[in-house]
Design goal:
By secondary structure, the chain is α/β, with parallel strands linked by helices. It is built from 10 helices and 10 strands. The chain has an 8-stranded parallel barrel, surrounded by 4 helices. Strands 1-2 form a two-stranded antiparallel sheet. α5 links the parallel β7 and β8. The chain starts with a strand and ends in a 10-residue tail after the last helix. The model has no long low-confidence stretch (mean pLDDT about 95).
Length: about 325
């Protein structure tokens, strides 16, 4: 496993991270979840991502239980705040009240004294950015969080926030967590260059496009019964990928991967990591073998000629916009 700095910070995270969206505390039973987390740690994965909103804290509980046997300094745990955690008017967003209360709740569920990376899960247009940044800055001063990040913020929002932090002498945001994969590339145009300018690294989610880029879904074939797409609890975002145009192109990508002696999932992860602005690609896994397979992508460099071949295939589905 290789490691990269998270933006301009001194924090180093594994090129492959393990996430818990739609898996741990939700669709994957506890024992399998813990087995996946342990396998990841054994392989050198040190970056574990979750959120308070993942099944109302259940994912944080599972992650905390799985990591408790390891030295706290040996792993980086990231969680998030923004989405509703109750029915009250202050049980959501990025107000000082919600951030402080949810940080305390996440610390208890994770069973740790501090959170390495505390992320604003979405942008809150109803709360002044300065209020949010001051709450995060205070939590950092108290030692309850070490770094702050955001998720799915636009280039404009990132720029405005960076300016406020500098103007008010507040600690800067060091990361952004956007969706990024071969099929969804919107961050390349503005988010990546703006983030680099302000010293932020990307910890991208869904690098395998909800499993589409594993090659398990074939054009003209039935959806595998054990797959995410067949699970009513987790298939909300994957169905938009399941069209003939996308699946046909994915089969071409799989052929390219085979030519390199790789599985499609490994090629897809290496493709995401080709971007120097990407600090880590966050995978999901329901079985330890999947973690084993995906970890191989770390450190693999795709030849330039192959990158050009991939671009040619991806150009065929340039207008594809998934629902997620």
């Amino acid at each position: 496993m290789e490691y990269r700095r998270l933006g301009n910070s001194g924090l180093k995270v594994s090129e492959i991270g393990l996430g818990s969206w739609l898996t741990y505390g939700t669709a994957v039973e506890k024992e399998k979840s813990i087995a996946c987390i342990h396998k990841a740690y054994e392989l050198g994965i040190n970056f574990f991502d979750t959120a308070n909103a993942y099944n109302r804290g259940a994912a944080e509980v599972v992650l905390g239980e799985a990591l408790k046997e390891y030295s706290r300094s040996s792993y980086v745990v990231a969680t998030k705040v923004y989405f509703p955690m109750g029915d009250g008017p202050n049980d959501r967003g990025l107000s000082r009240k919600h951030i402080i209360e949810q940080c305390e709740a996440s610390l208890k569920r994770l069973g740790v004294d501090y959170i390495d990376l505390y992320q604003c899960h979405r942008y809150d247009s109803e709360t002044p950015v300065e209020e949010t940044l001051r709450a995060l800055d205070d939590l950092t001063s108290q030692g309850k969080i070490l770094y702050a990040g955001v998720s799915e913020w636009t280039a404009e929002q990132i720029t405005d926030t960076a300016h406020v932090a500098k103007e008010k002498n507040l600690r800067p945001i060091i990361s952004n967590q956007p969706i990024y994969n071969m099929l969804v590339r919107y961050i390349e145009k503005e988010v990546l260059p703006v983030s680099e300018k302000h010293g932020m690294g990307q910890v991208v989610f869904s690098p395998l496009a909800q499993g589409i880029l594993t090659g398990k879904y074939k054009s003209g074939q039935a959806i595998p019964s054990t797959s995410r797409a067949a699970n009513q609890e987790t298939n909300r975002w994957i169905t938009s990928y399941l069209n003939e145009e996308v699946l046909t192109s994915v089969q071409k990508l799989e052929t390219i991967a085979q030519g390199l002696g790789l599985k499609l999932s490994q090629l897809a992860l290496a493709w995401v990591l080709r971007q120097p602005g990407v600090s880590s690609a966050i995978i999901g896994a329901s079985r330890p073998e999947q973690v084993d397979e995906n970890a191989i992508a770390s450190g693999f460099t795709i030849p330039e000629t192959i990158l050009e071949e991939i671009e040619s295939v991806l150009a065929e589905i340039n207008g594809f916009v998934p629902i997620w």
